[in-house]
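Model it.
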Amino acid sequence: MFLKYLYQRLASYRFKKIHPIIRLLKKSFGEQDPGEINFNFSTEPTRMQIIQKIIDKKKYNSYLEIGTNTNELFLEIVCEKKIGVDPYSGGNKRMTSDSFFKQNEEKFDCIFIDGLHHYDQVKKDIINSINCLNNNGAILIHDCLPKNISAQSIPRTELVWNGDVWKALVEQRTNENLDCYTILADQGIGLILKRKNRDILKIDTNNFKKLKFSYFYENHKKIMNIFKFEQILRII
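Modeled.
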């Protein structure tokens, strides 16, 4: 009982390093591993190429990036106006996304979300982004296709880690006023367009946070609405 309690407590914190004790406890008390999904991103475009292509195709003038880290993406994007938000490094706004959206009064054409990879935070970032998105704009979300249970587990135990971002995108796919897709590239890139949903997802749950990886494993093609990028370019 004590070990289970310890695991539950540890799971409520954000860790910056990999902790073997969490990995061990997760094996004992976490969800059973259903297996690995063979996502092949090696021949697909990078997030930088995808975002830039969308900006150029749609003739976007403004770009917002949530979670700039070391600027590996932010500095490469070419757009007339760029804002990058991160509480620790990179970008040009040193604050949390919650703080930024609270004081922001601007609208953006393209928004890329790559902040804290926890469902609750990603959901907030999506909702806040929708509220400041221009009508013809696009929201993109990184890390939507975890290949195994460790890659999506909270707390983080792996170097290559997606978190449970996928749950937030699945929830938006049930919204009749948002058209949502997942691009099969660069760890999975979610795409949200502010228009009528062309393929609304019907799912029997009101608590998306409690969805299990086993459900994702068995249903990812359907629930994530996955397309290759060349198909997405025709859709948008």
